[in-house]
Amino acid sequence: MDPARMIADLEGRARDLARRAREVREGVRAAEAVVGSPDGVVTVTVAPNGALRDIRFSLPPSGVSDARLGEVVMATVRRAQAEVARRVAEVVEVEFGGTEAVEFLTGFLPREPGVGAPAVPPPAVHPVAVHPVVVPAEVPAEVADLPLPRSLRAPDEPGDGGGAAR
Which residue stretches belong to region Disordered (predicted)? Predict the structure, then answer.
């Protein structure tokens, strides 16, 4: 095969992969889950990374005990986290299905109780201190908006606007 043709083919594949990655990034950014408790007392909104974005309470006139409310909140948050994880996996699956990366990702999806997995146990009364990894709900603008190298841009994709060579 002609070296120039090989390079053109590789650049085309890279452009396609970059386009697919952008579509996945946008799909993941848009993924969120809004889930209500079965009794309607709690409604939560969870970000694509599983972080709690919003919580709303609609307490019935009879009231709910603090302990019961805590249980309902945690169960609802877990359901929303499982739902948003499934949505993110679906977005990735559309573009990159059948790859080891997708299999790895879907292997960590939480399963709802009664659907092939035990319920997530409540935390211990005195849990061991864990330093969680904080994942931003959105990619910082300075990273997300970096232009692709010219050779990876789709023909109709705008460049840097300045016409300067990169």
Answer: 145-166
Strand order in the sheet with 42-46: 33-36, 42-46, 52-57
Enter the DSSP assignment of 36.
E
Structure tokens at 24: 């996945």
Domains of the chain: 3-113 (3.30.1310.10)
Is residue 64 packed enough to be buried (19+ CB in 10 Å), middle (13-18) or exposed (0-12)?
middle
pLDDT digits (tens, 9 = 90+) for 46-85: 998 888 999 998 876 576 788 888 899 999 999 999 898 8
What are the CA-CA distances from residue 140 to residues 25, 83, 135, 144 (Å)? 12, 24, 11, 6
At 138 the pLDDT is 54
> Which pTM value belongs to this model?
0.56
Could you tell me the two tokens for 140?
A: 């910082």
**Dmax over Cα atoms in the chain, in whole Å?**
78
